[in-house]
Design goal:
alpha/beta; four-stranded parallel sheet; about 35% helix
Length: about 90
């Protein structure tokens, strides 16, 4: 399995392929959630996600909180229900 992956319902994530990240994009949120679980259980070290799957990722975080990996990173996408500037500030603080 790849070490760094990204899963989203947002096609703008495809740009991450240009820097060598394996990207899974699908309009169906349940398929994206299944792929997130698959990457998490198969040894991927960094998993990038967006707001559409945030609730599901919190469940995964509880499952893997005692382990060093995977690391889950939320990427702001600029969707109208997100405060992108606040999200970026939070990421920088972490």
């Amino acid at each position: 399995m790849p070490e760094i992956v990204a899963c989203s319902t947002n096609e703008s994530f495809i740009i991450l392929r240009s820097v060598g990240i394996v990207v899974y994009v699908d309009e169906n949120r349940s398929k994206v959630e299944k792929q997130l679980a698959s990457y998490a259980s198969s040894g991927s070290k960094i998993i990038i996600y967006d707001a559409s799957t945030e609730d599901y990722v919190h469940q995964l975080l509880e499952k893997y909180e005692e382990q060093m990996y995977p690391i889950f990173l939320k990427m702001p996408t600029g969707a109208k229900n997100e405060d992108t500037l606040l999200e970026l500030k939070t990421l920088i603080e972490k």
